[in-house]
Specification:
Strand content of chain B: under 5%
Radius of gyration of chain B: 18 Å
Number of strands of chain B: 0
Number of domains of chain B: 1
Shape of chain B: globular
Number of helices of chain B: 10
Strand order of the largest sheet of chain A: 5-6-7-3-8-9
Strand content of chain A: 15-25%
Oligomer: heterodimer
Order of helices and strands of chain B: HHHHHHHHHH
Radius of gyration of chain A: 19 Å
Largest sheet of chain B: none
Shape of chain A: globular
Structural class of chain A: alpha/beta
Helix content of chain B: over 70%
Number of domains of chain A: 1
Largest interface: A-B, 37 and 28 residues
CATH superfamily of chain A: P-loop containing nucleotide triphosphate hydrolases
Order of helices and strands of chain A: EEEHEHEHHHEHEHEEHHH
CATH class of chain A: Alpha Beta
Helix content of chain A: 25-40%
Chain lengths: ~270, ~250
C-alpha cells in the first residue's frame, strides 16, 4: 500500500553546499512498507525525520532521492492521482476557523471534485459519524480541540481515501477525546480496510493501536516490527522502555525553527 | 472554474464575517482624509492647488486598497503552518489554480474596501466629476488590488515567519504609498523624488484613479492603464512562480 525505497531528503542550509553551507540530511536512506488495511505507527524523537517523511509521502516535499509508491502510484510523478488516494490530518490544525464545519467540508469536496449530490450526502454521513452534525452551522473557531480533530478526520475521509496519514493526531487531546477518536479510526479500519499511518509521542497509544511499528532516529530507521518484537529485541517490558533503549535517553535539543516560534505566538493569541 | 469560485467565495465570506476588521481598517484612511484633507486644505488652496480633499480621495482610496491587498497576500505566511493553505496544497488541484483563486478573492476584498472608503468620502464632501467614468475608476481599483495581492503572495511565498513583516511594512508598503503621489501632486517635484515616483507602480494607479474620479491625471490615463496592466501581469507571473515553489 505504501512503499518507501531508499527515501532521502537533504536540506541545504544557507547558500547550500556549494557556498560553504552544510547539507542537513533529514531523512537518510529510509525504506519501509505498509500493507493494505494495516495500522502502522511511525515513532521517533523530535527532529528524527517523521514529519519530513510524511511530507514526502503526501507530495508536500520532493524527495532528494529514493522512491515512493502509494496505492500503486508514484506521488512525485502522478501527483493528483496520488493525492486522491490519501487523506491527511496534519500536526497543526488546517481548518478554516472563520468558516462553519459544513463549509469546511463543502470546500474539501469541491477541491477533490466530488459531484454535488454525492458531496452533500457524504458530508451528512461523515458529520454524523464524528457526531458533529448538530454543530454543522457553527463556526470552527467555536469548537474545542477535540471537535476540531474530529472534523479534520471527517474531512480527510470525505474523498474515500485508501490511506489516511495522521501526524501526531492526539497531541493536546484529553483521554476521553483520544479514546473516542481512536474508536472511530479502528472502526473505519475494520469496516473499510483503510490503511492508517500515524506518528505519535504516546508509546501506549502506539503499543495499543499499531499492528506494526517503525522507529526512526537521526533520519534512519533503527528498528521495526510489532510492539512485541521490539520489546523482545530490547528485552524490555514496555514499548516506552524499548523506545528509550533504542533511541537513548538524551533529550533532543532541537534548534528552535520559525515554525516553533509561530506555534508559540499562536498559543499566546488564540487560547 | 468551480474550484476558482470556491476559493474566491471563501475569502468573500471571511471578509463579511469579520465586521470588526472591516471597521478597524477604515480608521486609518478616514483619519488621513479628515486630518490631512481638512488640515492641509487651506494651505493647498492658497498655493493655487484647488480643493485638497478632492485631490486626496483617490490617493487614500488607493492606500486602503494596497494595504488590504498586501495583507491578504502576506496571510499566506501564517496560513502555511496554521491554516487552510496546507489543506489546499495536498488537494488534487494545481498550484496555479490555488494562486489565482486566492488572488482573485484577495483583490475583490481589497477593491470592496476601496469602494467603502470612497463611499465614506462622499460624506466629507467629495464629488465625482461625472458618473460615467466610474467604471474606469473601478478598473484602476481592480488593477491596483490585483497587483498588490500578487506582490503580497510573492513575498509570503519566500518568507518563512512573521519576522520580516515589520520590514515589509516600513521599507516596502510605506515607501510605495508615500512616493506614489497619493498625498502630493506629481508636478514640479525635485528630480530625485520625481524619479522615485515614476519607479513606484502605485503612482500609475493613483494617477489613473485621479483621472477617472476628478479628471486630474498628471501622466495621462492611457499610459497609466498600460503601465499598470503590464506591471500587474508581471507581478501575477512572479507571484505564481514563487507560489508554485512553496515547500512547507
Amino acid at each position: 500500500m505504501i512503499e518507501a525505497i531508499n527515501l532521502t531528503k537533504k536540506f541545504s542550509t544557507r547558500g547550500g553546499s556549494v557556498f560553504g553551507g552544510k547539507d542537513f540530511v533529514a531523512v537518510d536512506n529510509v525504506s519501509f512498507s505498509v500493507k493494505k488495511g494495516e495500522i502502522f505507527a511511525f515513532l521517533g524523537p523530535n527532529g528524527a525525520g517523521k514529519s519530513t517523511t510524511i511530507k514526502m509521502l503526501t507530495t508536500l516535499l520532493k524527495p532528494t532521492a529514493g522512491e515512493i509508491v502509494i496505492n500503486g502510484v508514484d506521488p512525485t510523478k502522478e501527483q493528483d492521482k496520488a493525492r486522491k488516494s490519501f487523506g491527511i490530518v496534519f500536526q497543526d490544525p488546517s481548518l478554516d476557523d472563520d468558516l462553519t464545519a459544513w463549509e469546511n467540508m463543502e470546500f474539501h469536496g469541491v477541491l477533490y471534485g466530488i459531484p454535488k449530490k454525492e458531496r452533500r450526502k457524504k458530508i451528512e454521513e461523515l458529520l454524523n459519524f464524528v457526531e458533529l452534525w448538530d454543530r454543522k452551522n457553527s463556526l470552527v473557531k467555536e469548537f474545542s480541540g477535540g471537535m476540531k480533530r474530529r472534523l479534520e478526520i471527517a474531512r480527510g475521509l470525505m474523498h474515500e481515501p485508501e490511506v489516511i496519514f495522521l501526524d501526531e493526531p492526539t497531541i493536546g487531546l484529553d483521554p476521553q477525546t483520544r479514546n473516542s477518536m481512536w474508536n472511530y479510526l479502528l472502526n473505519l479500519n475494520k469496516e473499510k480496510q483503510i490503511t492508517i499511518f500515524f506518528t505519535t509521542h504516546y508509546m501506549e497509544e502506539a503499543e495499543k493501536m499499531a499492528q506494526r511499528i517503525a522507529i526512526i532516529d537521526h533520519g534512519k530507521i533503527i528498528a521495526g516490527g510489532t510492539a512485541e518484537e521490539l520489546k523482545q529485541q530490547t528485552k524490555k517490558t514496555s514499548l516506552e522502555e524499548a523506545f528509550l533503549e533504542l533511541t537513548g535517553k538524551v533529550i533532543r535539543e532541537e534548534e528552535v525553527g520559525s515554525t516553533e516560534i509561530m506555534r508559540q505566538h499562536r498559543r499566546m493569541w488564540r487560547r | 472554474m468551480n474550484i476558482l469560485y470556491i476559493l474566491w467565495l471563501r475569502q468573500i465570506k471571511k471578509y463579511f464575517r469579520s465586521k470588526a476588521r472591516i471597521i478597524g481598517s477604515l480608521g486609518q484612511p478616514l483619519l488621513f482624509l479628515v486630518a490631512l484633507g481638512f488640515g492641509l486644505g487651506p494651505v493647498y488652496q492658497k498655493a493655487g492647488g484647488g480643493n485638497y480633499l478632492e485631490f486626496l480621495v483617490p490617493g487614500i482610496v488607493a492606500m486602503s486598497i494596497i494595504f488590504t491587498a498586501i495583507f491578504s497576500g502576506i496571510e499566506i505566511i501564517w496560513d502555511k503552518q496554521f491554516g487552510f493553505l496546507k489543506e489546499t496544497l495536498v488537494a488534487p488541484v494545481s498550484r496555479l489554480k490555488i494562486m489565482f483563486g486566492r488572488t482573485l478573492g484577495g483583490a475583490t476584498v481589497a477593491t470592496l474596501q476601496g469602494l467603502i472608503v470612497m463611499g465614506l468620502s462622499f460624506f466629507l464632501g467629495f464629488k465625482l466629476v461625472n458618473w460615467w467614468s466610474f467604471p474606469l475608476a473601478l478598473l484602476f481599483m481592480v488593477l491596483i488590488a490585483l497587483l498588490f495581492t500578487a506582490l503580497g503572495t510573492a513575498l509570503a511565498s519566500v518568507l518563512n515567519d512573521m519576522q520580516g513583516f515589520q520590514l515589509i511594512i516600513n521599507f516596502l508598503i510605506m515607501p510605495l504609498f508615500f512616493l506614489s503621489g497619493a498625498l502630493f501632486p506629481l508636478a514640479n517635484l525635485p528630480t530625485a523624488i520625481s524619479i522615485a515616483t515614476r519607479i513606484d507602480p502605485l503612482t500609475y494607479g493613483v494617477d489613473g484613479l485621479r483621472g477617472a474620479l476628478i479628471n486630474g491625471a498628471h501622466i495621462g490615463m492611457g499610459l497609466d492603464l498600460l503601465i499598470l496592466s503590464l506591471v500587474t501581469l508581471l507581478f501575477i507571473g512572479v507571484g505564481s512562480y514563487l507560489f508554485t515553489r512553496i515547500e512547507i
